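cache lookup: miss for this entity combination. No prior model stored, computing from scratch. Input as submitted by user K.M.:
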Amino acid sequence: MTDSFFLPEPGDQLPRFAGVPSFMRLPHVPPGHPRFKDVQIGLVGVPWDGGTTNRPGARHGPRQVRDASTMIRRLHPVTGADPFGQTACADLGDVGPNPADVQDSLDRITAFYAELANAGIRPASVGGDHLTSLPILRALAQDGPLGLIHFDAHTDLYDSYFGGFRYTHGTPFRRAIEEGLLDPKRMVQIGIRGTGYDGEDIAFGRAAGVRIVTIEEFFDRGPDAVMAEARDIIGTGPVYGSFDIDFIDPAYAPGTGTPEIGGPSSFQAQQVIRALDGIDLVGFDLVEVSPPFDASGGTAYLAASLLFEWLCILSAAIRRT
Amino acid sequence: MTDSFFLPEPGDQLPRFAGVPSFMRLPHVPPGHPRFKDVQIGLVGVPWDGGTTNRPGARHGPRQVRDASTMIRRLHPVTGADPFGQTACADLGDVGPNPADVQDSLDRITAFYAELANAGIRPASVGGDHLTSLPILRALAQDGPLGLIHFDAHTDLYDSYFGGFRYTHGTPFRRAIEEGLLDPKRMVQIGIRGTGYDGEDIAFGRAAGVRIVTIEEFFDRGPDAVMAEARDIIGTGPVYGSFDIDFIDPAYAPGTGTPEIGGPSSFQAQQVIRALDGIDLVGFDLVEVSPPFDASGGTAYLAASLLFEWLCILSAAIRRT
Amino acid sequence: MTDSFFLPEPGDQLPRFAGVPSFMRLPHVPPGHPRFKDVQIGLVGVPWDGGTTNRPGARHGPRQVRDASTMIRRLHPVTGADPFGQTACADLGDVGPNPADVQDSLDRITAFYAELANAGIRPASVGGDHLTSLPILRALAQDGPLGLIHFDAHTDLYDSYFGGFRYTHGTPFRRAIEEGLLDPKRMVQIGIRGTGYDGEDIAFGRAAGVRIVTIEEFFDRGPDAVMAEARDIIGTGPVYGSFDIDFIDPAYAPGTGTPEIGGPSSFQAQQVIRALDGIDLVGFDLVEVSPPFDASGGTAYLAASLLFEWLCILSAAIRRT
Amino acid sequence: MTDSFFLPEPGDQLPRFAGVPSFMRLPHVPPGHPRFKDVQIGLVGVPWDGGTTNRPGARHGPRQVRDASTMIRRLHPVTGADPFGQTACADLGDVGPNPADVQDSLDRITAFYAELANAGIRPASVGGDHLTSLPILRALAQDGPLGLIHFDAHTDLYDSYFGGFRYTHGTPFRRAIEEGLLDPKRMVQIGIRGTGYDGEDIAFGRAAGVRIVTIEEFFDRGPDAVMAEARDIIGTGPVYGSFDIDFIDPAYAPGTGTPEIGGPSSFQAQQVIRALDGIDLVGFDLVEVSPPFDASGGTAYLAASLLFEWLCILSAAIRRT
Amino acid sequence: MTDSFFLPEPGDQLPRFAGVPSFMRLPHVPPGHPRFKDVQIGLVGVPWDGGTTNRPGARHGPRQVRDASTMIRRLHPVTGADPFGQTACADLGDVGPNPADVQDSLDRITAFYAELANAGIRPASVGGDHLTSLPILRALAQDGPLGLIHFDAHTDLYDSYFGGFRYTHGTPFRRAIEEGLLDPKRMVQIGIRGTGYDGEDIAFGRAAGVRIVTIEEFFDRGPDAVMAEARDIIGTGPVYGSFDIDFIDPAYAPGTGTPEIGGPSSFQAQQVIRALDGIDLVGFDLVEVSPPFDASGGTAYLAASLLFEWLCILSAAIRRT
Amino acid sequence: MTDSFFLPEPGDQLPRFAGVPSFMRLPHVPPGHPRFKDVQIGLVGVPWDGGTTNRPGARHGPRQVRDASTMIRRLHPVTGADPFGQTACADLGDVGPNPADVQDSLDRITAFYAELANAGIRPASVGGDHLTSLPILRALAQDGPLGLIHFDAHTDLYDSYFGGFRYTHGTPFRRAIEEGLLDPKRMVQIGIRGTGYDGEDIAFGRAAGVRIVTIEEFFDRGPDAVMAEARDIIGTGPVYGSFDIDFIDPAYAPGTGTPEIGGPSSFQAQQVIRALDGIDLVGFDLVEVSPPFDASGGTAYLAASLLFEWLCILSAAIRRT
């Protein structure tokens, strides 16, 4: 039965451009709030770009996505899914990073997500740069390595940067594999493209068993075939989802730090997320939205729209449990 | 025989960026002008966003489309059609809405278009928000309900808003059906997508006999098949055309009030308009261009380019009569 | 004693760019909230531009000002005032207008503010266009006409528009005088400039006893002399404050619908607000911030900074009671 | 007696954002129009940047200024002047340059203005880059050299560029002096500033008798004193006015090709133009508005506002004859 | 063996956003530099828009592309090609045009490229408008006419403009054919679209033997088939490549002077360049990037990415010799 | 005697918008270059924002300022100073920070500047955020504490952030005093304003002997009086200059991370720098230009113009030695 507390503020009572902008106009339920324990899906912002080695600004991502997300309505146009009516969703607020210290930020983020994990809340996160995924995985993978379905232009499997710096937005999944947070045999990366440094990241991934689907293969075989294979690989075990907005072509998503041309369209992005219906999604993040490079705000609106697609998958996973 | 009065100012005598910007550099022939009676296609701006419940700005649409339209040359690249040479086209100016009153605006617009209808001028309108279509249809459908070919991300078949307000940019076609201006059996809506409130709009439309083609069906079957079916449905009777710029993906058309991701490309937009050749088009509108959200002006240029495509269809319809 | 519930979230625990953006990072205490009765200053957004006859977009003002306001710290740099520590301030959320109907919106806004007035909360409002002031005054002036200190490029004393439409952003203070909400003998308008229609607005105002200070007089005599006179005119009775962002030169405040060149600087704007210390301010509004015309966001940041200045004046007025 | 044909379209019948945008919403009366002979002040666009050696785009100036100028109302706020009611003003359209050839453009422009001069129309021109002034002066100075009141950050008295190219936007007034179109003893240049090449331009000007007022002197003595001296120098003979938008600080006027920091405010710009009341102004131009560098459109609006100030001076000059 | 002098500055020693921005972070080796004679591929900027008859700004293209190009890494993602490691590439700087004179500019450019040709350096040029190609071809085709592979929305085969002006960005390839610099039988133009003046350009081209592939044919047959035919036509002789950024849809490339809707995606642009592998490319240009119309900088980044694709083709051609 | 090697590339041989953009079009002379030892003033970029706790982007400052600086010509308009002709100036390139580590960056920067100090080169630096000043001072103050002339809206004298993090852009001068790099008795801070946390920074500074001039005092006494006092305080000993672009009002300088309204104009900024003529300036930095927030590029152009003013002061100081 739907708990009306957890429903978004309806647009015919308060116009969609009005109100304090929480994610999807959901109630703001930070840890400590009396209804925190009832939340099933916790939307969390991670306003952090401390791992960014190129153009910064992802620290401003959560706020702009919140703003854009107030445009989203309740029902999925194809499946009719009603994630806010079917699952208790809430905006848990932002986890505060330390802009002046990477390690302190990693610890703060992991602590925040551990609290969610303990409360049985599945997280839907909006970054922040891609290093965000690492501290989240540290909190979520306490019972063993997870599978990963990962959409991105880059593998983020680099080893280090600048001669030994191991924590940047190019390294989270290398670290996560090393730390036993992810099972490389149940990892799929889709959309990889762009000029390379030396190919070591891809070589590492493939050696470890990660299935890497380049954009050329993606366009050649088509979203359906690629996603069918991905479903096979990730299987029925718990899976984490990670969606870098630079997966999509920069014509659709200019507001990001490290764009790569030659990417998919927004419709193809919807297709690949919808193809995940049925997996045991334990949480996901949507990262690398950088508002300062998003002249028209379209990237944030795209991110908010895809956030809804992901929420439908996560809501369905919860309802199956 | 071509009447040189009605030809656009040529770009090799006055550069395309020069001159007072009328639509397509056509002569400005407002009602009362001595040549008004000779006009066959009247281009009209409706600078109005009084029905907008979300992001405003469509009131600035006509002016920005006029500006962009001065880039358009004379001949269609595929068919060689020469609408300005083959039909007497003119910029009739803008119909002045009342920014402070919706009902007064509806009346002013209908009165203006009734004058065109009486003069036998077929209107090519640039909005303005989508409520614009209703007062135009009131003027054009005096001899009975028209068919409708409608490209849009939204059905605009909602019943009311805010508990009883019946005239917004989400309701024009519901009102038009109720008022007997449109024949729902001869209505086709293409491109429908995006999250929904409760699905009542689609249910109403389908119950009334409207053919609603979602974007998923559009991409699945392809423009050719969809348009062949649409041609069958609208048949040989008089048809009105309505093109909401948010039909197209926001990567191509960011300058609009209620974008929806996952839409067609600009080439696909050209394809669907070109597929209308041969229908008895009695007029059309192109709506929801909102310049304040169009950082680079590309939406207006897209709109101006599609305005030319529509003019070729309308010109051909006139030449067949 | 400071009630820590009402303190802004500190920037050294959660970075200023993080978190759900309420005004000044204050707690969100909508009517019905258990702490509502304890609020002394209620910050309210009025996301409405239904009275706008020129460029729209002020409906998006409150959200952008909320975003910018998270940059504001606690203490006034000159007086050391600490309004959040000295007075219970809260973000009451937005009053929802009806984008499709002016009269319904006027009624909704007055009803909302009547609730504040009844609770003894003094309102600090962020518009919205200038018609916003009228329904607020209807709620606040229940015990008799108020004085008005009004900074603006325009008098907003017009009678009607489009042949009889009496409720636009150019008419609020004419209506307020007619309705007995304002005492014209205790009204001061400062910064008036720009080309005129027919001067009837100024003639009306002066005939009624309103003190109108043109920008030429303002620059000639200087802020100190002008404000000393203004203080004399408004006297010791209850006064409402209204600040149109177009008071300031458009180089500082491009994001507004009807800019007028030749205005004051941001420092002069600070000076005139600071000169109000000691008046019996019963509430104020800050209106006409239109984000779609604010390419860099600077207008919203300016507005947020001046909102702080006004809050210090309002807080001091409360502490004197 | 006011000829209603020449009045701007009033904003309470057609909103200011509506309609085909002519300068100041005046009638469009190109040469050949039946009312051409009755025009007293002809507003002309010169969409040309063929003389620009730095950032281009001034070719788009006239159109953007036309757009912004529709915001301007009828009466001067200080003097009450009503130039459109007191003098027959019209938009004569644009003179078409040849974007591919400087000399051909110079000839086309002079020919156009000679037609105005012969018809007794005083031109109010909107550029275009500053080379625009030269061909206009060739048409206007047929009866002997004119005085010049010139506001600019640069002298535009350079001799040549790139080893011998004599016609650029840095040379018009050198050429005009050489050609006997201007009397250097009756020339005043105000606002000169910015880093220099070698100072030869200033040395030439001073040697020829031109009064050059640097920005430092302008700020030191103040607008009143400087303009009083300028009035003395230009005297009672015929004077041409030339206003480069880069006279004003780039905070106010970012949309220009060669900005120089440290300039006057918009109010000071109004002051210096208003101080010209009483001179025998035979025409003026307002140049170097470059829309591609004007992110918010504020430069064009500033230019339109100052265009009105200049029109008041020109109208008064005509009424005295 | 790789000469480390010619390697780009690596991003893990100096971040990619740091440093004086040369093309691809290559060494700056202007003519006269001691290593000039060792250069195999010379990257050259031609900051010139003197031939532009529409929106200007391409003069700023080289600098913005240099800036964006510092984001490009070393290896091609599909072929693994390492053009900077396999061929000596350098930034030769810009050839200085004369902004005030078209003919002088043509001569300066030809002289610069003749120096390259004499040194055996193959040029990779970044414009500048499309007239840039003509003076380059004059330098490169000294031993007889070249083939041409040309991607563009326009044929640039116009005869003249404004009644006789023969050197504009719409005429370079007409002139090149007339001057015997190109062999029309070995010319392929792909992507042609948009409204036309009179079709004379296409008629001329086809009569001369140029293979013109319209965008409709391109989308209908697909990139593979079109490029296979193009390869057949250009054959094994020396070929020049010319890529106008307006080949690509303006959603991907808004920063250009004469956009045409309905174009290919960025991925399709990559496909067609990659299909050129194996031709005897003697040089290429990438033109018509106009930064003032590129609100987010994405066009320059697209251009930089495609520049890398072209460099791989050129590098391979050199290695085969 | 002027060494022509060190002269900027002249604009009449290569247009100012052309060429690889070094600072002021000076030769690029990185450490190791044969002419490095002859450099007197080294222009250095520090593309780093690792200390930024608010809006990032200053890492992109040096590149955008380089681009804008190519507009600057040779001679000072008031003094006629010719710093490039009178002193050997060169662009030394950027010192590469480590975006992923603050401490490593501090060390890298100090090492780079130590090399300059050893070579007797006085540095003119472009940041970067304000933490940049600390590692520079560590290199320059090897012979004892320096004086400081500091223009800024903020004191940057905070102690720590986030409970103990001591190296942010709000703390450099606290650290520098603690480390004995600056003599607080010879420190002047001008322009301080904006809301405060707790006033501890100002209390610390005043207790230590720093002269802090608030913006209110600055406007009240005027630039001349304030700078005369500042000259007295810094005296004749060696002084470092630090100019935060947020000293200036955000209308003039929107492109910065932490703007504060109510600041000086660009002309006043020129005045205060010019008033430094005669001091023993050992180097300076110009920091906090953040291009992602600078919609029109005006902030970078302002910074480049002020960079020239500072270079004139530094050049004069060198010539006096």
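stored under new cache key. The two ends of chain A are 16 Å apart (CA to CA).
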